[in-house]
Amino acid sequence: MQRMLTALGAVGVETVLVSVDLGGISAAVLRGVRNRPAKKTPWPHVRFVDDDAVTDSAQDTANAVRRMVEAGAKVIICLGGDGTARVATAALLAGPGYDVPLLSLSTGTNNAFPQMREATVAGLAAGLVATGAVDHAIATGRAHALEVRTGERTELGLVDVAVSTAPYVGSRALWHPDALTELYCAFAEPDATGLSSIAGLLCPTPRDKPEGVAVRLCPVEQAPTVVNAPIAPGLVLPVGVAAWRPLRTGERVEISTTRGVVAFDGERELELTGTTGAEVRLRADGPLCVDVTAVLSQAARVGLFRSDRTEV
């Protein structure tokens, strides 16, 4: 976080809003603000977003994003894994933050959606977008998202939606692939960790492709195809696959499993009780994401990091 603040200051960002947490990140920033030597690159003014009580839950992320958007944030930087990015995205898409760019950085358990970037480089890109130094049309792009509707409830997944015959939500993570029956992916990269790796090792589908993947799963002993997939860090398991196909943007698919749970980006969130049907749809209007490479390429082309000297 401190390297990111240095980079943000270097490209002219004046104010940074930092959420308050119980994990020590905000405390480290506060110590850095108090102890930073004057001779070093100045940091932006740091203001902590502490309007809401800290609950040490996903609600903290949602509250912080909402408060930052209300305060006029030009970019949201999200530190975490797929689950944290999903909560931040839901908060952005649900309100006036729809067009606020999101830069999601990998620090979580499952990290298929967040970018794996060094903090200084990420901070430079975020700062250039926030200050308007680069063209937003080039620097940002909409990601796809998976929408599940059941009754009056709607949930979003950024990477994958998995259906399991497990009887209740209970433990959040899915570690038993034999219970999985359906998997839908917004994108599927072969180097991912998590449930999307199943599709990524079957039919790699990059995130900029205008379609996702639908996979029908079954127990290994009944499967015509078995994939050895890294479904979690340090956990490579055989997964039975009955069939797979492309999932077109806008296509609605009825979830065939009537009793069980639906997991979004690897975390169980929704119970299927058999009383109400559920359907999944691949949306093209997901979060507006910062493309770090595109930002820095554009900045280099127009000379934002260069000083030309007429006299040497």
Automatic annotation (TrEMBL):
The signal peptide here is none
Gene Ontology BP terms? NADP+ biosynthetic process
Q: Name one GO molecular function term.
A: NAD+ kinase activity
- Claim: Transcription is one of the keywords in the record: no
Enumerate the UniProt keywords alphabetically. Answer: Kinase, Transferase
Highest taxon, organism lineage? Bacteria
Pfam families per the record?
Answer: NAD_kinase (PF01513)
Q: InterPro entries attached here?
A: AcoX-like (IPR039065), ATP-NAD_kinase_N (IPR017438), NAD/diacylglycerol_kinase_sf (IPR016064), NADK (IPR002504)
Keyword Kinase listed? The answer is yes
Official protein name in the record: ATP-NAD kinase
Whose protein is this, by species?
Streptomyces violaceusniger
